Amino acid sequence: MSAKMKDAIDVTLGVSSLRPAPEQLEALKRQARNGTLFGEYGSPQREALHSDKQWLNRLITVDADKVSHQIVDISQDKDGRISAKVLIADTPNGQRVKEQLERANDTQLHFAMRGMGKFGEHPDQVITYDLVAVSKPRSTK
Q: In this structure, how many other beta carbons lie within 10 angstroms of the beta carbon of residue 133?
């Protein structure tokens, strides 16, 4: 990946019932230290023309044209919360992330783990953490 990075932020990826196994977390840490752990803004979407093989390849590949961030450090606390230091990419999707952060009153950014494996178990393979925007619930006052 050759996306130019800027603007470092510290984020908490959050607690999930689906956590990487210890060996997967160590692999992610190595990728982060080596500068090769990138993510996209939004989760990959299956296009109508994707065959099953193309769709699987899309899921296991971070698309360089869709990169929004680089995870440069990742850790897990005793309660299972995964935290990361993230560099925002100087790309169109990186700009979208910056805009979402500036509009924090309307939306929240969350990380979605992209992985492969059996439902309800540790994933066999963790690809990355993608950033997704979620609308904040409106107050009913």
A: 17
Per-residue pLDDT for 127 more than 70?
A: yes
Q: Which two tokens stand for residue 15?
A: 């607690």
Count the helix, strand and coil residues of the chain and give each as a percent rounded to the nearest 5. Answer: 25, 40, 40
The Cα 134–Cα 103 span in angstroms is 12
Task: Report how many helices (DSSP H) and strands (DSSP E) the chain contains, helices first.
Answer: 3, 6
Res. 81 pLDDT band, cuts 50 70 90: confident
Q: Which of 24, 57, 40, 56 is nearest to 125 (CA)?
A: 24
pTM score: 0.79
Please give the distance of CA 129 from its chain centroid, rounded to a whole number: 2
Q: Which of 38, 107, 45 is nearest to 67 (CA)?
A: 38
